[in-house]
Amino acid sequence: MSLKNLLEQNQDVIIERWLDLILATYPSDGSFFLKKQKNQFANPVGYTISKEIEILYQTLFKDVDTETISTSLDSIIKIRSVQDFSPSKAIGFIFLLKKAINDELGNTVKEEGLYSELHEIESSIDTLILKAFDSYMKSKDLLFRIRADELNRRTKIILSRYSDTD
User: Fold this and answer.
1) CA distances from 12 to 50, 104, 158 (A)
2) CATH code at 101?
3) pLDDT tens figures, 102-152
4) Does residue 7 lie within any of the structural domains?
């Protein structure tokens, strides 16, 4: 059996494991809430992460347009870039997919000698990590520009008030 077939057959288990690993990067009380609250409106962060990692997983190992992957990746990165994560932790959730796959299929890969296929899968994940870094930098740049624009706006208001008092 091929590793891609195993990844498809074990999709739900691997995605669930990946989600658990991602949510473990949050403080314990936040992690519990993100995991247990399934409502999109009560828990938009947990809902978005859960939905988008499923899309990423389903599309990552197939020849799918990069737009689908980029959209899902951007949705997660936008969330993690405004949270209190270092850059490495903000995009590090993708590395956790490798761990989830190894946790669930490591013994089978070893028994079946599927190391070359695993290497290909991990190369795809590495490519995703590079895209995540680009997305993270784009998000941070946007945040910087928003903050700079707000500072300029406030400065203009203060200067206009100062000039009105003369």
Assistant:
1) 12, 11, 55
2) 1.10.490
3) 999 999 999 999 999 999 999 989 989 999 999 999 999 998 999 999 999
4) yes
